[in-house]
Amino acid sequence: MRQVVQAAGGGEVRVVETPIPSIEATEVLVETTATIVSAGTERAVTTLARSGLLAKARARPDLVRRVAEKARADGIGEAVRSVRDRLASELPLGYSGAGRAIRVGDAVEGIRPGDLVATGGAGWANHAEFQAVPGLLCARVPAGVPDADAAFTTIAAIALHGLRLAEVGPGAKVVVVGLGLIGQLASRIALASGCDVAGVDLADLPLQTAAATGVRALRESGEATTAAVRQWSRGRGADAVLICAAGRSGDPVMRATEFARDRAQLVVVGDVPLGLARAPFYEKELVLRFARSYGPGRYERGYEEWGVDYPAGQVRWTEGRNQEAVLDLLAAGRLSVADLVTHAFPLERAPAAYDLVATRREPYLAIRFDYPRRTGPVEDAEAADDGPPAESATSTEYSLAGKARQVGYPRPVARGAGSPGRRGDRIGWIGAGNFSSSVLLPAFRAAGFDRFTSVASASGRSARAFADRHGFQGAAAGVEELLDDDDIDVVVIATPHSTHARLAAAALERGRHVWCEKPLALDLAELEMVERAADVGGGVLMVGLNRRFSPAVVAARRRLAERDGPLSLIYRVAAGPVPADHWYGDRVEGGRLLGEVCHFIDTCVALAGSRVETATAVPGRGGEVLLAEDLAVTMRHVDGTLSTVAYSSARPRACRKELVEALAGRSHLRIDDFRELVIDGVSEWKGAQDKGHRAAVGAFLRMCRGGATDVTAELIASSRATLAAAASLGTSLPQPTGSPRSVATATVPVVATATATATVPVVATAPVAVAVAKEPAGIDLADARRAGTEQVGQPAVPAARGVGADSVPPEGQASPVLREEGEPTR
Predict the structure, then answer these.
(1) pLDDT at 735
(2) Per-residue confidence (pLDDT) for residue 826, from 0 to 100
(3) Pick the residue with more confidence: 120 or 622?
(4) How many helices and strands (H and E) does the chain possess?
(5) Phi/psi class of residue 745: alpha, beta or left (left: φ > 0; alpha: ψ in -120 to 50)?
(6) Whole-angstrom Cα distance, residue 154 to residue 337?
């Protein structure tokens, strides 16, 4: 399919070919028929993208702070590589459109394939031939409303939400400052609601268009305009002022204070800076409010990504219900939008449309993109994009953030097909995030991998961009296509944590060699599923627990191998805080314990040279225990070694992230953030920070070429130890926030108890016979997740979740820190 993108590092807007996106259980795949350019918002995105680094830094100081923090934690070189990779990424443009629903996720209600829907959301409702949009950001279009009109719905919802915040009704005097597209829509909706409306602007076209609908159109001319508003409002001033202007000046906000009556509502809808003077607000006791996009639910992951709607009795007008209200106004003829379109372009001429927006060489209001109508099913479009279909019928579509969904006829998986001849030369890569490009891919190249065949990602767009940027032969239309490609020997999985086990098992079953980023699994059922697949598939398995391969740990293990008795290990981690909406706070992704502390548990295992026998985790107070930001994990190893991981969300300025200390008899060993190894006061190794990524990939390459695979069992054992630590939290027990929590040691028997003690095996004492039966194609693997989660005492969670990034940036901001796929702290 074709999609409009802007490179984050600058350059012109382009129309690129990308795979059709996949959908999650809470999403709808829409074949686009029309989209509307929100000129002010999208001009801000493209302008920021084309600006220099200094201008970007001034516009986004929050990102500058993140880069500085990364440089301090991981080194300047790593921070520079991360920034360069972000600047090489592509930003999707657009957020308001309409089209036909092609596929509907299992958890979406009220929409069926074939329905005409209005779509919204930056990063979802893009200027693209197909859109994967959350179900709660899709609204069915009533009969009689044309596609081209329905495409205005989300932009009009912004105006409607601003009007709701103004708390006005019939007869109210409303002034709209700025009569661009959103200002025009706000004026028309206010008129439809029975308000009297005056609009203020400088340009002829907006004033003429507004006047034609009954708005009192006023050209901004200072005192004369203020006097006209006074006269129009019978000397009182406006009851509400909607500031729909956009620009670098804060003058529109201060001008609004002059139009307003005493105790009026001022609502900032447009993107304007604030340069406020106190006196006007104090003297009139004005209320200043900000409209956050199209209503409640915006930027809330639970609402947008997980599909959890708000009860109408509690939140009457969510962003989705605002979309419905706009469509009802269109259907009733109380809102008209067709005359707002001043320019229409076919999608392939999108660069010309953005040139018009940038140069403003002629006046415009709404710019519409029109899309070709396809007559066949979406599968025909996929075939056109990606070549002829494979001979075997696809049976299961693998989602990168949820479950497998049945989309065809069951097809048997050829277990281990071709694996004896696979040397690991040809790589299929799943996940196109920043960690993949800045750390993992360079490590694979440095280790000697040189045949990079295909990439798959959730959005399709990121897969194509990743393939182009890093020299892959192409981008797959989806994960299933990549997994079924027999030209691929090795599958690299660098996706959100909740998808690792399922994708690893699917690749191993097909006989592929698998590199899976940590964690390998989020519960025992997932771990056992991967182990079974590894046993029968024939490929090798490596988990991205890389610290055991670092120069410091390798040298330390050589010295510690000479000891006579057990160790005492303390691993201190100053991980630093993460934003409140970070995906570490999403229980579906496993939190910090399962998602990051697994690294440190495995490093303790490697240093001790002995597997974990018992594991206990103690969380800090407050919040959900599995998602604790501060915690300690204490382990006893088979050889008697005692190790403790002290994990903190603090990050003092004078403190490096990781420090490992080991005591063995009369010896003392210290690893300082993987920059230096000191033994008994003597520096044994020192260099640039090296956490072992390249050495780990080198070991994986040797495994693919027939080398020893003993490390796989150790990595699986460390994964089991991490799950035992999580089980010791007793998260199945309801406990008040801040109350003492009982913890327990993990022992050999597998017993899920109803008490505060959890007994979970870390080391199996006897082999267990397992009858391996193929799971039917299309099985809901989320059910296996829930079953396994309950085994270890963790709460069951919904399988439905989104992929996009940590969150979509606010319209009008070009954020280079979107989370495309799993972006863990490394």
Answers:
(1) 33
(2) 52
(3) 120
(4) 27, 32
(5) beta
(6) 13
Q: Where is pLDDT greater, at 300 or 248?
A: 300
Taking the alpha carbons of 27, 31, 33, 35 in that order, is the dihedral positive or negative?
positive
193 Cβ neighbours under 8 A, 6+ residues apart = 163, 168, 169, 170
**Secondary structure class of 370 (helix, strand, coil):** strand
| DSSP characters over 780-794 | -HHHHHHHHHHHTTP
- Report whether 504 contacts 520 (CB < 8 A): yes
Question: CA 525, 529, 534 angle in degrees (round to 5)?
Answer: 150
Q: What is the pLDDT of residue 754?
A: 34
**188 contacts 206 by C-beta, under 8 angstroms:** no
User: How far is Cα of residue 235 from the mean position of the Cα atoms in its chain?
Assistant: 51
- On the CB side of 766, how many CA atoms lie within 13 Å of its CA? 4
DSSP per position, 109-129: -S--TT-EEEEE-TTTS-SBS
Residue 563 phi/psi, 5-degree rounding, is: -70, 160
N-term to C-term CA, the chain: 34
> In a 3-state reduction of DSSP, which class is residue 455?
strand
Neighbours of 669 (CB within 10 A): 23
Neighbours of 430 (CB within 10 A): 30
Specify the pairing of strand 366-370 against strand 341-346.
parallel
R_g of the chain, CA atoms, integer Å? 29
Say yes or no to pLDDT of 778 above 60. no
| 67 SS3 class | helix
pTM as predicted: 0.73
Taking only the tens place, the pLDDT of each residue in 54-92 is 665 666 676 666 667 666 666 676 666 666 666 667 889
In terms of residues, how long is the chain?
826
Report the mean per-residue pLDDT for the chain: 82
- pLDDT confidence bin for 559, thresholds 50/70/90: very high
396 pLDDT above the threshold of 60? no
Element (H, E) at 50: helix 39-50
Sign (positive/negative) of CA torsion 700, 702, 704, 707?
negative
- Give the tens place of pLDDT for each residue, 796-816: 333 333 323 333 333 433 332
pLDDT higher at 24 or 119: 119
Neighbours of 577 (CB within 10 A): 12
With beta carbons less than 8 A apart as the criterion, state whether 176 and 197 touch: yes
Q: Are 529 and 784 within 8 A, CB to CB?
A: yes
Distance, in Å, from the CA atom of 489 to the CA atom of 474, rounded to the nearest integer, reads: 16
